[in-house]
């Protein structure tokens, strides 16, 4: 169970073996600790007792904090939940050998495949209603697939040697993807193009907030796998930048967030904005939809598996790859 707090002035406390959420001094919800997986606070004026923090840590429950735009600014987790130091040592060493190259290429390949598959998914509903737009979507999908084939020509001894080429391929694929997605959204919501920070348009605001929730989910899985969140491969190192989180998020953006946001817009969900970005009601509805999506079973390795569990499995598989115990394959969602 994922608990998402969006109401101003709520307080979280402990009563017996239950997590208690109060609003204006009155009990709003109670949750048994053994049923809670994560707690996310997305509001100002929320208070947590030291008792509830300790109980969450003892149950392995991570507490996340998001800004109104969805940007993570803090995480509480138990120091006893990380894996062995061997994983982190190998992660650092992989930066200067071919493991980093393999991983970088794999991440870009997975992202491009997921972009193409999501466009295929939404194009199904355009085939009979808009022939011209459908043909443009098909052409865009073919272009992304052609860009993906360029990965075969990329080679080097360490990630620093190939990062520029990989980011060029990833960037051209992303540009095509967002242009085609704009066609799919035409007439439903204004989408000026992909913007990350400081955006004021509704669609980008939905994406950024959804990605913030996804970041926290991936971050928790990475910590449990014993990996170092700030030592990435595809994304460059920078103080305060969780590069490995950004790396691993790439294969889950489309199946978790983009699909959810586009579906909400296509169904006519009203997206309201205020001076701080998305209104509280819109953030709450989006958070609920993202959490539902994470709970959705999809086909993975021949069987139905919840997306949140796939994120955990992929983090563990990445750790095994870095230790030389397994190959790493990106999760590619079906359409």
Radius of gyration equals 20 Å
CATH superfamily of the largest domain: CRISPR-associated endonuclease Cas1, C-terminal domain
Identify the strand order in the major beta sheet. 1-5-7-8
Which regions contain 5 or more consecutive residues with pLDDT less than 50?
Answer: none
SSE blueprint and pairings:
Layout: E1 2-5, E2 10-15, E3 18-23, E4 26-32, E5 38-41, E6 47-48, H1 50-58, E7 62-66, E8 72-76, H2 85-94, H3 98-123, H4 131-149, H5 159-185, H6 202-224, H7 243-249, H8 253-266, E9 273-274, E10 277-278, H9 280-294, E11 297-300, E12 303-306, H10 307-322
Parallel strand pairs: 1-5, 2-6, 5-7
Antiparallel strand pairs: 2-3, 3-4, 7-8, 9-10, 11-12
Care to describe what's here?
- The protein is of the alpha/beta class.
- The protein folds into two domains: about 1-65, Ribosomal Protein L15, Chain: K, domain 2; about 85-320, Four Helix Bundle (Hemerythrin (Met), subunit A) (Up-down Bundle).
- About 50% of the residues lie in helices and about 15% in strands.
- The chain has ten helices and twelve strands.
- It has helices spanning about 50-60, 85-95, 100-125, 130-150, 160-185, 200-225, 245-250, 255-265, 280-295, 305-320, and strands at about 1-5, 10-15, 20-25, 25-30, 40, 45-50, 60-65, 70-75, 275, 275-280, 295-300, 305.
- It has a four-stranded mixed sheet with strand order 1-5-7-8, with helices on both faces. It has a four-stranded mixed sheet with strand order 4-3-2-6.
- A hairpin with a 2-residue loop joins strand 2 and strand 3.
- Helix 6 (about 200-225) runs antiparallel to helix 8 and helix 6 packs across helix 10.
- The longest helix has 27 residues, at about 160-185.
- The mean pLDDT is about 90.
